């Protein structure tokens, strides 16, 4: 039951500024698109347009139907599109289990009472994300990484065919980052989950997803396979950094960032600093 | 669209999940409900029993049974009159007003995600007070029947003004913006009310009598006036309370979980304002119940609104009956205004809440 998403000429105006200016983007059913772009490019706003939480012009369709309005109820959309927000609110006095259980809200009646099925699914997701031991903890006492996994868990229990993740790995250490993205890849393969994830880390983005879209100044400027988009000239054009790339047999791109020479006088004056991150063959640490 | 088949997320964990009983979220359990109702019953019985003419609890229960046609009433005619014409309506009104103020306070705090929200801080009570004053001074309400609707209109206008004033600020409804807007609205309404009282000095006694609290002049008429409001508020607030638990993650996230935050908030604020207006219109201004009671409940039962809202109604009912008992016995035969008692307990509690807020923010 895979569901594709499509944006056609989507514009969003916030605070007198055009944050999105005619965005066209399609993620086919069961696909994974990594949305990249410099800070302020409009990545989060694009996800908000898809989840129906911001007014937009143009057309947003999820599974061939209009995402907002058009007789489509908010609950129906929430059952179809689950969201992992970038900086989630921390509720007061709520336990992790109760917090994750909120993801079942669109499946519950107006009394919002949790069925045994709701509780079972919640427990299963907690187990899969190594959160079971934290089930009775107050959400406010979690570390940044634990909280990010709890938010992901809340989105996963919704069992929605589309998952929008806004920087799902921003608060995680490298091992957890890769582990989380590998989990998303498993879910994509297992249940045909359609994924749109914003990522700011280019070195990670090249290792996951079937497509990469680059958003700059409210417009999609590049869209295609990772090996076609994540090239040194493209990255230099939009981020202003020198990189070396290496494409493996599966079309995954390893991006190596080089320190820029012209800024060297501000630092200690040493040689090039390198950061290399690869996804394949990496074992996440057992918790 | 609802996936009924086992989702792939369960794979590998399903066996475990089926064997292990999953945890439960904190709900309103029957045990909590019974404890709350028992507290109310005990408070009501004490309120009926204690006074210048003590009547023991057994006699009260026998008399109540006799009125229902079971057994013989052991009370003298005088005792029976004191019990059923003086104390019972007063206790009943205390229960109703306490439930409305406690439940409304809990609802406001939940809907604004602000533990300091209270009917008075938001200017709702001041609006209700001005509305009632207008109804009295213009003589629109000879019988008093126009007072509750006028108070209700005033309450809605006041909370509407407060909400609009605080929403204008960037970053949504912050606690500080909300409270400042409420203070400003309340001050403005109080100024208008003071002007009206000066202008219509002959209505002063009636208005002040109303403002200072009317549990002491309670008859069954007041109880009957407030009962429909209590019924509506109790049903709607208890039904809406679980939605407030979803709103606890903020409007944007609640929207992605399938809840309409704007509608939910509008409904709850309207219902809580109705409750406050009804309470204020029959009892005058009784402070701190809506602030103190929900915080006490949270300390005992956790912060889930599905517990806090209904239990605050029960605890508020019990609290106000006991506060009224203190007000009428501590200086007997003179009576202290009940607002003095609730403020004496409530103000220090309010300061404690402020301090714990300060340490977290």
Notes on the structure:
The complex is a heterodimer of chains A (287) and B (361). Helices cover 28% and strands 26% of the residues of chain A. Chain A has helices at residues 43-50, 74-80, 96-101, 116-128, 144-156, 174-191, 202-205, 226-229, 232-239, and strands at 5-14, 17-27, 32-36, 57-62, 65-66, 81-84, 162-166, 194-198, 211-216, 219-224, 242-247, 253-258, 274-276. With 361 residues, chain B is mostly helical. Chain B is built from 14 helices and no strands. Chain B has helices at residues 14-19, 30-49, 57-67, 77-112, 124-137, 147-167, 175-199, 204-211, 220-247, 251-256, 261-283, 289-301, 305-329, 338-360. The two termini of chain B are 42 Å apart. The interface between A and B is large, with 56 and 44 residues.
Q: Count the helices of chain A. How many?
A: 9
Most extensive chain interface and residues per partner: A-B, 56 and 44 residues
What is the helix content of chain B? over 70%
The parts of chain A where pLDDT drops under 50 for at least 5 residues are 264-284
Rg of chain B, please?
22 Å
Question: How many beta-strand elements of chain B?
Answer: 0
- Residues in β-strands, percent of chain A: 25-35%
The outline of chain A comes out as globular
Molecular shape of chain B: globular
The overall strand count of chain A is: 13
**Class per helix and strand makeup of chain B:** mainly alpha
Structural class of chain A: alpha/beta
Helix content of chain A: 25-40%
Percentage of residues in strands of chain B: under 5%
What integer is the average pLDDT of chain A? 85
Compute the separation of the termini of chain A in Å. Answer: 32 Å
On the 0 to 100 scale, the average pLDDT of chain B is 82
Compressed to H and E, one letter per element, the order of chain A equals EEEHEEHEHHHEHEHEEHHEEE
List segments of chain B where confidence is low: pLDDT < 50 over at least 5 consecutive residues. 1-15
Biggest sheet of chain B: strands, sense, closure?
none
Side-by-side strand order of the widest sheet of chain A: 6-7-8-3-9-10
